[in-house]
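Section 5.1 Outputs to date
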Amino acid sequence: MIASHLNTKGFDVTGIDLSEDSIDEALQSASEMLHFYLHDMRLPFWINYFDYAFNFFTSFGYFKTRREHDNAIRTIAQSIKPGLVFL
């Protein structure tokens, strides 16, 4: 799991996913600096909080409308501190 790998490098990591099964599995490795939340990336999360945001695997391409894709990008942009990084 990428979140666990980043955590072993010393990063405080927060993972979100819409899949309850994925979050349940991830929570087995949660720790003080490795957090997981059931959340829809199209909806606001923590504003101006993260230094980095990563989007892995299959998040884009599954939304039904352009607006849903735009909402996801907007939410990600709002979640990172100004001037920091989205990959």
